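Bumping with the actual sequence this time:
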Amino acid sequence: MGWTYRPKPQGKPEDYLPAEFFADAKPDTLQAVVRVKCDLYDALYLAVKLYPPQSDRVVGYVVLLDEGPQEIGYKIMCETEGPVASSAPVEVLEKLTDPAPNEWAFNWRRRCWLKAAGNKAQMSRDPDLAYVP
């Protein structure tokens, strides 16, 4: 779960990185790709359709970004790994299939929905959600 750095190609990361990650996938694999700029980080949030043998599920991915003038760094995580970054927009969250694949994914989705709804009061009271940046 480390960072990968490489020379920065032309264009925006939301246009080229997801296509590279899922280059061998079917055309409708990427259901949604949204870039979110936060105080602490920039991130891409993806809704990705899995195919058999994983079943026709749509799961969330987070891609943290570190852009420099000549290189780009990224760190990609599936929701099942419990990413801390939890600013996925509703546009991505609505495409994910239920139920969540595991408890980490469930908690990640919950934090994202609460943050999208602006419910920081509940997030600060719940110890499972307290670490959200």
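The tokens above came from a reply further down the thread. The chain has a mean pLDDT of 84.
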